[in-house]
Amino acid sequence: MMVAGTALGIAYGDWRKSIAFGAGFPAGCLLAIVWPRLVLGLVIQNSPARALLSPQLRIRLMRVFLAGCALASAALALIISFHTGQFVALTLGIAAFLLLSALTIRYKALLFNVIVVTFFTAQILDVPWRAILGNPLVLTLLTLLLFAFGSLVARLLIQNGGDAHAAFQARLLKHPLMLATMAAANQQLRLGRIEAARLRRHCARRAPASTMLGYLLGPSYQWLQLPLVAIGGAGALWLALRYALPPGAISKNLSFMITCWSVGLSMLAPLTHLFFLDTSFQTKRNEQILLRLAPAIPQGSGLNRAFANTLMRRFLASWTVALLSATVVLTLHEASLDGLAVIVSGAVLLLPLAALPLQNYADARAAKPSSRLALSIIAIVALACVMGVLTQKYEAPWLLLIGVYGAASVLLIHRRWLAMVAAPVAFPVGRMTQRRARGTGTVSK
């Protein structure tokens, strides 16, 4: 998103727009996604290592957090002195969303889209933001309210964060259906109860290993939330504005911004899938869950093959959802065929990500296999596309380049898949067997 925004700004000949669209807007989106997990990971002790923080350390971390809020308030006061009301309003909006999402993590995607829809609607209806936010009294009140809200969040997290989370983890470990409880208690998903019911049904029917491996990777609905919210929000906003406002009231720039925002959210689905996949791999208790629920899982290459196929199906499903959601958004916005071609090309550029999870999980120190030819082709084509956009030479054979890029991506994925299937020890049983062998002094395959 940063590279595409910067290239568009340069193509239109305005370096200010290139900085705003290429760096500021995507950086704010990325920060809004990362900040809640960072705060919750430090304070509520939801880190991958499951480390317990002492109360003194929690208080110190929250003091650092409050110091950051104070510095942000000082920076806002400095910005106010330069009379840049719109920038202050945008900064206050992003900061308020970050703090609010840290407290209500369950509804962060909905809140983020509500803020964006409100901002776009206010721009269309020509709300006098400059006159309202140009008043120093209004800016001062907003800054004080923001700092007070940050203090409230910090107080709640200090009092109830670490101890409550540790007690919840202790109860979770003692539960006979630990994975079902985890799925049902997942505060980020509305479909947790459905996932738990499916798990109980599959356990009763002695489902095969390929089905149980899906539960090892966690619920499959997490990467569906973002593109569905993007489709619903963009479609509802566009249809409402189209029928509520007179023809010609929606400018081309605003239409372009809404389209880019919706498509960008949709294409984040594969990245969200990989993020949750990495989080699942860092939780070692899932190995015990898999052995408890599916004791007859295959060994060696059989488990590797089933696990690799499950990984590929999950990624291709998220990739397909991203492509379809982006296509639906552009169709609602009555985009041209060139816009659809750009979306398809962007989806092809994400294909090499499917090779990232395919590796030998039994040995973390093992070299990750790759194809030098495929990586070289991918790098050359990506560089050629970037240079073509920057130099505004659009006569390049884009269809041929995308085809070569896709073929190289498939070659890389096939290479990694073969290496994972041929691994001597399978994940996760092999890692447990190696750990047990080191503890007893025996060697088992």
TrEMBL record:
Domain of life: Bacteria
Residue spans crossing the bilayer: 20-40, 61-80, 86-103, 110-131, 137-158, 223-244, 256-277, 315-333, 339-361, 373-390, 396-413
Keywords: Membrane, Transmembrane, Transmembrane helix
Protein name: Uncharacterized protein
Organism: Massilia glaciei
Lineage of source species: Bacteria, Pseudomonadati, Pseudomonadota, Betaproteobacteria, Burkholderiales
